[in-house]
Amino acid sequence: MGKISTKSIQSQLILYFTIAILVPVIVISIIASKFIYNEITNRAESKSISDLNSAGEIYNHRISQIESITRLTAGRSFIISSLIENKADTLYKELHTILQNEKLDIFTIVDKNGKVICRGRNSFNSGDYITSDKFIKRVLETKSTVSGTDIVSPDELKKEAFELADRAYMEVKPTLMSRERSEKFEKNGMMMKSASPLFDKNKNIVGVLMSGVLLNRNYDIVDKINNVVHENEVYKGQDIGTVTIFEYDVRIATNVKNEDGSYAVSTLVSEEVYDEVILAGQKWIGDAFVVNSWYVSAYKPIRDINDRVIGILYVGILKQPFNDLLLNTILIFSSIAIVTGIIIFFVAVMFAKKISAPLRKLEEWAKQIADGTYKSNIAIKAPREIESLSLSLNLMAKQLEQEKFELENWAETLENKVNQRTEELKRINDQLFRSEKLASIGKLAAGVAHEINNPLTGVLTNSSLMLEDLEENDPRREDLQVVVNETIRCREIVKRLLDFARQTKPQKKMTDLNALIENIILLVRNQSAFRNIIIKKVLDTSIPQIMVDADQIQQVFINFILNASEAMPNGGQLVVNTSLNHARDYIEIKFSDSGCGISEKDKRRIFDPFFTTKQQGTGLGLSISHGIIERHGGKIILDSELGKGTCFTIFMPVNYNSDIDD
Ligand SMILES: Nc1ncnc2c1ncn2[C@@H]1O[C@H](COP(=O)(O)OP(=O)(O)O)[C@@H](O)[C@H]1O
Ligand SMILES: [Mg+2]
Fold first, then answer.
1. What does pTM read for this prediction?
2. Of 508, 611, 593, 584, whose CA–CA distance to 552 is shortest?
3. Where are the alpha helices (DSSP H) in 470-527?
4. How many domains does the chain have?
5. 596 CB under 6 A from ligand 1?
6. Are 557 and 513 within one domain?
7. Which residue of 48, 64, 149, 613 could cross-link 298, Cys pair, CB 3.0 to 4.6 Å?
8. Strands (DSSP E) found in 95-188
9. pLDDT, tens digit, for every residue of 177-214?
10. Which domain holds residue 245?
11. H helices then E strands: how many in the chain?
């Protein structure tokens, strides 16, 4: 027997079931999460790109707004005539009003040589030359309007207003990822500017009108961008979108706030973005950690009118909502996986029970079959294979039972046969034993008889002579007669012994057994011993003559008849019967008497030499008869019941070739 596995079919089914379904669920969840993550990231990035574009639009829109104001104002004849007539006061009043209304930081008129005629912001400062200004130079050259972003030196700003220089002035604060910066202060300002030419009636250029909005610490534009792009959306108390304008790498305007609530200006951009946007002039999209949160960020360069990169426009969307979305998705997926797992587990348990319960029943049943306590068919409700297994088991059990039954029968017959054989063997053994005993006793008796014969002859001769010599009336005569008679008896016994011992070959001749029996009966009938005995002959006249030693057979018959008479001292009936068996190969000779019968104990010994129950018996009659019949190839069978009678049956073969046998 192999070792029995400790794992039950139930637990294994559950395990494999769960693995088989949970693994794909987990894999699918991972793939789906990954896919969703990518999708969300892509969407976040493309949104930040489009936001950046919108921001750029709004930025440019503000510039074109400034441009239209400038262009419109520069086209007014009132302004041109005031310039020609050098009415600085009138100009100031007009420009200042527009500056204030349009939230401009500068609104300045210069003549065609670059000499400042009027500053709309500052009426006290004029007459200086600003020929170095790129915009004014370009307008004088091209005689058309120029707009864009520009870097303005602190000196220029101061000429307009100290306050502007102040706003532009920044102490640069490094951040974790920013590059090393040699300048610790940024004093330049960054401005949206527009400049338009002023023409007289003859279309001759007489001056330039230049307007500008300082971007440093200007929260209007970033708020506006944020408002339009992100609609001021708030996520968990935090602005969802951020907008920042950089002057070079310094934050100069932003809606990102520090933890203390102040605007996070004057900090530096990361080195990575600096390299990509300022140095390489490229866009940069990616995740960036700004102040205290992660943002999906997009940066693009701001260029001056000579196409030099002078700053960065930045738009960022808070990463948190995307992360939360991702987290939620993963949560949903994993809870689906868990719920599926649990459902599968229970389904597997149920399924496994459905399989293992009938299996257990079958097991119990098979045990019963093995123990032999199995009773009847069992019916099992189970999946097809198990049901057919139970059918097969049923069949097997039945066959087993049948075989067991046959085996038992067979064992019984075998036992009977063995018993029969044993009995037969015992009988043969007994016969052998008796034959051997007869042979040895015969030899012994022959010796003894020989020795006794001569003295007996002497005794008989002498006693006979003595008897003859005695007078007729001599009283000793009677005693002597006893001596003579007894001696004759002794000689007779000795003769018989010698006959027995000699075991002469039968002198065979064709003999009619019926005639033999008739003769014997004639002989004995008148003897005194048969006085009260009725002798019945039932002789089958159809029996054939057979080759036998008639003298010996006669001796045998006489033996049986004498024994019968001795068994019936008070009379009775003797039936002598001859017949032929069906196969006509044996003659049966039966001697049945109604005498005393033979006890079971004696039955075994009556054929033994010298076994006798009679006072005067020799115990040789039957043993000699047995020897004679055996030598004729026949056999004797005894049937007797104590107190009822005895029947000896002799079987004589019809054709017996004694020459071969002897
Ligand atoms: N017909 C019979 N009825 C009863 N007993 C018998 C019969 N024939 C033989 N016997 C028994 O068998 C014994 C042996 O017989 P046998 O050999 O002829 O010797 P004997 O006649 O000298 O005793 C007898 O002593 C007797 O007990
Ligand atoms: Mg006898």
1. 0.54
2. 508
3. 476-502, 513-525
4. 3
5. yes
6. yes
7. 48
8. 106-111, 116-119, 146-152, 170-171, 185-186
9. 888 888 899 999 999 999 999 999 999 999 999 999 99
10. 37-323
11. 16, 21
Atom of ligand 1 nearest to the CA of 591: 1
Ligand 2: centre distance to CA 617 (Å): 7
25 vs 20, 38, 351, CA distance in Å? Answer: 9, 19, 20
Structure tokens at 180: 């090393």
Mind listing the pLDDT tens digit for each residue in 444-465? 777 777 788 888 889 999 999 9
- Give the pLDDT confidence of 508-544 residue by residue, as tens digits: 899 999 999 998 888 888 788 888 999 999 999 999 9
DSSP strand E in 501-571: where?
Answer: 509-511, 533-538, 546-548
Which among 467, 488, 503 is the end of a domain? 503
Same-domain status, 228 and 97: yes
The tokens describing 380, both together, are 């099992």
Distance CA 565, CA 545 (A): 27
Q: Which atom of ligand 1 is nearest to the CA of 612?
A: 25
Q: What is the C-alpha to C-alpha distance for residues 298 and 282, in angstroms, rounded to an integer? A: 11
Q: Which atom of ligand 1 is nearest to the CA of 564?
A: 1
| Interval between CA 628 and ligand 1 midpoint (Å) | 17
How do strand 533-538 and strand 572-580 relate by DSSP bridges? parallel
Q: Is residue 227 part of a domain?
A: yes
Q: Is residue 31 part of a domain?
A: no
- The reply to whether 513 and 390 lie within a common domain is no
Instruction: Look at ligand 1, atom 12, and give the residue with the nearest C-alpha.
Output: 606
What amino acid is encoded at 537 in this protein? K
**371 assigned to some structural domain:** no
- Any ligand 1 atom below 6 A from CB of 622: yes
Q: Please say which residue of 503, 536, 565 terminates a domain.
A: 503
Residue 4 DSSP one-character state: P
